[in-house]
Amino acid sequence: MNGKIIAIAIIMITALFGAGLWYAQTRAYFEPVATAELVVTTASGDTLALAHSDFRGIDAASSPLRFRACFRLDAAALAVLEVAMPHPEPTPLIAPDWFDCYDAGAIGAAIADGTARAVLSVHEIHRGVDRVIAAFPDGRGFAWHQLNGTLEQ
Question: Which residues contact 64 (CB under 8 A, 6 or more apart)?
Answer without folding.
Answer: 125, 126, 127, 129, 145
